Backbone:
């Protein structure tokens, strides 16, 4: 017998994801960029990393976190522009205001996506699908941008659903169809399964949700650690995580484990560029500035080290973070291959308005 979720009354969860957010804002604000292959982040000379790309650029295979050098090769006529995080933050704030018309249970994941729990909505609409439609329309009318929405009974499935009909999509996956949907899903599409884990799963001949379902919970935990229990549950449509507007933390950062160990300094720099963009975006959301930058490194032999630098004044700008972590990297063993890199900011001595609004709590990404 299939295990059932604990909740007898299903939650109504919406995942909203803006379509090519940074690129769409740039195209909205500059008519000359509309319909063009646009890359936000990096530069035409191949430096840096892609933050996002317009759908016109994505047709050439360009995607976020790709090095600008590769993006330029794929699409020589692509237009590169610098990110305008202050503008993206203002647009994100307006989007958040639209969300708050319907619910206070909002969990932002970044500037361009969030979970909403509308089990009990402020306007007594009752239908999560109708609320998602109204939110999409409000974003289009008030900001001249499009968003995609996924609707389901839990966060995991709602997030997957939002990606199905992009751009400007809306997908509902109801309780009765969740398990069959999850069985057909490729393992790399499971949110939380990164490149390394997906590679390991395929090496075990686990290619879809159906394959994962053949393993017991004990087997999943043995192969994948604590995450194994989560995979065991979500492949059965079970995800009881609540939408959490606030979560306390004293640092904010991002890290990534690579599909293969990095030995080339240019690759390391490209990964640091990518991570720095994520960190700055998260700092912008809460109007935070930190005095301490920390670089985390895990080598191929699993030895882990951290290096940090503190400043007399709080910082949050991309250029300073990128320069600092690359300097910190240069002070480490350059002959060892790297399995993981991470960047974080801490020592938030300035209390921002967003921090006060959240009752002194920050969301940990």
Residues:
């Amino acid at each position: 017998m299939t295990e059932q979720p604990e909740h007898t009354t299903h939650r109504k969860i919406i995942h909203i994801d803006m379509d090519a957010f940074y690129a769409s804002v740039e195209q909205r604000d500059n008519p000359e960029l509309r319909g063009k292959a646009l890359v936000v982040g990096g530069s035409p000379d191949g430096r840096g990393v892609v933050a996002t790309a317009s759908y016109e650029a994505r047709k050439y295979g360009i995607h976020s976190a790709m090095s600008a050098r590769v993006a330029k090769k794929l699409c020589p006529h692509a237009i590169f522009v610098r990110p305008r995080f202050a503008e993206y933050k203002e647009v994100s704030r307006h989007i958040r205001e639209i969300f708050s018309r319907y619910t206070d249970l909002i969990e932002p994941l970044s500037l361009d996506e969030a979970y909403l729990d509308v089990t009990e909505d402020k306007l007594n609409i009752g239908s999560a699908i109708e609320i998602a439609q109204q939110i999409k329309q409000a974003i289009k009318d008030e900001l001249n941008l499009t968003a995609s929405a996924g609707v389901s009974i839990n966060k995991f499935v709602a997030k997957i659903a939002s990606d199905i009909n992009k751009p400007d999509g809306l997908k509902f996956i109801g309780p009765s169809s969740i398990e069959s949907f999850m069985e057909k899903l490729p393992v790399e599409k499971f949110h939380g399964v990164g490149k390394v884990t997906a590679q390991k799963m395929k090496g075990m001949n686990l290619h879809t949700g159906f394959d994962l379902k053949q393993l017991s919970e004990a087997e999943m935990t043995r192969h994948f650690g604590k995450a194994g229990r989560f995979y065991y549950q979500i492949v059965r449509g079970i995800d009881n995580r609540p939408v959490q507007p606030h979560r306390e933390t004293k640092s904010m950062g991002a890290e990534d484990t690579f599909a293969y160990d990095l030995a080339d300094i240019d690759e390391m720099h490209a990964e640091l560029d990518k991570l720095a963009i994520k960190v700055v975006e998260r700092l912008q959301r809460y109007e935070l500035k930190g005095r301490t930058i920390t670089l985390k490194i895990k080598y191929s032999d699993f030895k882990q080290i951290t290096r940090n630098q503190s400043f007399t004044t709080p910082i949050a700008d991309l250029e300073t973070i990128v320069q600092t972590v690359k300097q910190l990297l240069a002070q480490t063993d350059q002959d060892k291959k790297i399995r993981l890199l991470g960047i974080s900011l801490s020592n938030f001595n300035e209390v921002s308005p967003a921090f006060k609004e959240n009752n002194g709590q920050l969301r940990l990404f």
Observations:
- The chain has 14 helices and twelve strands.
